[in-house]
Amino acid sequence: MKILGNSEIITLNDRKEFIHDGAILIEGNKITDIGSTDTLRIKYPHAEYFNLHHKIVVPGFLNAHMHLYSTFARGMTLKGVPPAKFKEILEKLWWKLDKNLTTEEEIYYSAVVPLIEGIKSGTTGIIDHHASFGLVPGSLDILEKAAIDIGVRSVLCYEVSDRWGKDLSKQSINENSRFIEKTRKNKNSLTGSTFGLHASLTLSNETLEECSSEAKRLGVGFHVHVAEGIEDVENSLKKSKKRVVDRLNNFGIFSNKTLAIHCVHINKDEIDILAETKAMVVHNPESNMNNAVGVAPLLEMNDAGVLIGLGTDGYTPSMLESAKVAYILPKLNYGDPRIGNEIVENMLFKNNGIFFGKFFDNPLGIIKKGAFADIVMLDYYPPTPLNENNFFYHLIFGIRESAIDSVMINGEFVLLNKKFTKIDEEEINYKASKIAGKFWEKI
Q1: Which helix (H) or strand (E) holds 300?
Q2: pTM of the full predicted structure?
Q3: How far is CA 124 from the centre of its chain?
Q4: How far is it, in rounded angstroms, from Cα 173 to Cα 183?
Q5: Which of 219, 305, 311, 345 would suit a FRET pair with 182, their CA atoms being 20 to 30 Å apart?
């Protein structure tokens, strides 16, 4: 039993409650009481007490779309003419990278590094989309071990694709099914699972039928890239005379358990399908800008009632960074400085928590009784008034990653006073660099 006291608590509950000189009681991996510091210390005299010295306490940030395996691309020089189109980026970089991930060590260390960096930026949970076509069977177990070793909450899936042939496509379907059944049986409070699909442009009708049937048997939704680049739309029209959302929907891909990633090149009819099926969309602003694929129609999706969350797509492990870019991008895109404030605030503080709630039994992204104890402590002393209505703007304009002092996940400190409690960060990065150097020789 622990009490985190003498803090300013941003609960992010329905009332946007802001508790001055607040304290949180943690038993096991859950929050069991909240109140003033004096009240909780008197009420629970035998609890271990942590004096937070007026730090701001917030729920951990949640990343709704990540590619942990992408780490080894950092700083890598591509041979030949640099890719000029999104399809070329896939072919010359990402598909080469995932085909050459062939060892447990490569998969493990490419995952551990961004998990560590995520914690340092206040991220306590990720929904990851994995691909390692050089080693498919058991690859999700490797990712799970990495996340548990670091102490991060994760939802994992494998990216089904036909791009490397039918055998590997079948292996990737089996890996999803195996891992989903494993997580249901083991019920680890840190691990969730879903069914991964790459994108319409690398999925045949036969594979989509097979995945749809298997997901229906398992009672799960999908984690799928949707119309990220215009190439996905062109391919879908060529294959089926239907746009991407319409084609995928014909196979039952969309439901209230499905995460539709990107949704950049979609029209009004497709937005209506997403709204009708209650599919959840994940916006990844920095990745979309970096790949020059365009900007998702956030305002139109929001007006239609589509639930939109926020991810990083492997571009960065930092949700703080992603939120800051997400805040300014729609203003530029729509030519209106009023656009996007509430939408982005809801993505980060509300909708991502709803997404994670599809995979875990207790609430996340909120500080309240019964929620998982996934908490971030900020070394931030506001130079202007801070209240229940303006914390989001302090975060956008004032709070930097350097403010992350301590992070608790599942009731345990994984970062305390800016030091990791479970791992040696320097040693891990040193090993990762050696492994990545050898990996580059294969590309």
Answers
A1: helix 298-303
A2: 0.96
A3: 10
A4: 16
A5: 311
Q: Judging by DSSP bridges, how do beta strands 412-416 and 123-128 pair with one another?
A: unpaired
Average pLDDT for the chain: 96
Q: Which CATH architecture has domain 61-356?
A: Alpha-Beta Barrel (3.20)
Tell me the angle at which helices 104-120 and 425-440 cross, rounded to the nearest 10 degrees: 130
Phi, psi dihedral angles at 207 (to 5 degrees): -70, -40
Q: Distance between CA atoms of 358 and 342, rounded to whole angstroms?
A: 23
Per-residue pLDDT tens for 261-271? 999 999 999 99
Strands (E), 162-315: 191-193, 195-199, 222-226, 259-262, 280-283, 307-310
The tokens 């084609």 sit on which residue? 247
Tell me which long-range contacts 288-291 makes (C-beta under 8 A, separation of at least 24). 288/228, 288/262, 288/264, 288/313, 289/325, 289/329, 290/315, 291/86, 291/89, 291/228, 291/229
Q: Is 1 helix (H, G, I), strand (E, B) or coil?
A: coil
CATH architecture designation of domain 2-59+364-420: Roll (2.30)
| Residue 81 pLDDT greater than 90, yes or no | no
**pLDDT given at position 397:** 97
201 DSSP 8-state letter: G
Render the burial of 380-396: b for 16+ CB within 10 Å, e for the rest.
beeeeebeeeebbebbb
Q: What is the band of 91 on the pLDDT scale with cuts at 50, 70, 90? A: very high
| CATH 2.30.40.10 residue spans of the chain | 2-59+364-420
Q: What is the pLDDT of residues 422-443, one digit of tens each?
A: 999 999 999 999 999 999 998 8
Convert the pLDDT of each residue in 31-69 to its tens digit: 999 999 999 999 999 999 999 999 999 999 999 999 999
Task: Name the residue type at position 431.
Answer: K
Which residues make up the CATH 3.20.20.140 domain(s) of the chain?
61-356
